[in-house]
Design goal:
By secondary structure, this protein is of the alpha+beta class. The protein contains 6 helices and 12 strands. A 7-stranded antiparallel sheet has the order 4-3-2-1-5-6-7, with no helix packed on it. β3 and β4 form a beta hairpin. It is elongated and about 55 Å long. About 16% of the residues have low confidence.
């Protein structure tokens, strides 16, 4: 008996949860049916639908927003402090591989984890170093559940490693080759796969146990594990 492609995809997703990454997959498409929750820089809060997004070179340049009161407006991302958005159904399916998260690592009290459990993703304005220039950009946080000491942001221009797919759905591989990473209150910088092993000791120098345990043969795909070890380190 032949398995239909979608059924096979779902079966693979279920079987993959034990080994899934802890980083959330980047979300590009926002739901137009479910409310988004936007907190502005002045502290005001908006609830409503994101009906359109303009991007340039992968970065959000403008958001079309319809409030729960029906009022429409265009929002400059510079005016946003942070926001929670629902992915489209397609992005939810491709993101299913990354749901095997250690719930006990949700340490950030400032983040609404109830919304994350409902499938929302979290964006925030962050200071990042882009080609030696500091810029403040609206970035998706990929580790909201264990980002107390090290935050990992999606790099909109990152290339991906080869991935396997069935029926048009990605089910394995496809890891980004770069992220923007922020240690503590420092400016986030671009961390690339090709340089990760060489930079490992310097990145985690404040936690000797992490360096001694993982430095030799450090793999890019184990980045979440390394960050978790660093976060748990009493010396960091």
């Amino acid at each position: 008996m032949k398995l239909k492609p979608l059924f096979l995809v779902l079966a693979l997703l279920v079987c993959s949860t034990l080994s899934a990454q802890e980083l959330v997959n980047p979300v590009i498409l926002f739901s137009k049916q479910k409310d988004s929750y936007v907190t502005m820089q002045d502290g005001s809060e908006l609830v409503g639908l994101i009906t359109g997004v303009k991007r340039k070179k992968g970065l959000i340049r403008e958001i079309k927003f319809t409030g729960s009161d029906g009022q429409k407006q265009k929002i400059n991302p510079d005016k946003i402090q942070h926001m929670y958005v629902q992915p489209t159904a397609l992005d939810k399916l491709s993101n299913a591989l990354d749901k095997a998260t250690d719930m006990q690592r949700w340490e950030e009290e400032s983040i609404n984890h109830d919304l994350l459990k409902e499938g929302y993703v979290y964006y925030e304005n962050a200071e990042v170093l882009v080609k030696k220039k500091k810029r403040t950009l609206l970035m998706q946080l990929l580790n909201p559940h264990f980002g107390a000491k090290v935050k990992v942001y999606h790099d909109p221009l990152a290339r991906e490693t080869a991935s396997a797919g069935i029926g048009g759905f990605k089910v394995a591989g496809g890891d980004a080759k770069s992220y923007y990473v922020q240690f503590g209150d420092e400016t986030a910088f671009k961390l690339e796969k090709k340089r990760y092993r060489k930079m490992f000791d310097e990145l985690y120098k404040d936690c000797p146990s992490t360096v001694s345990k993982y430095s030799d043969g450090a793999k890019w795909g184990d980045l979440p594990m390394h960050i978790t070890s660093f976060t748990d380190c009493s010396g960091s």
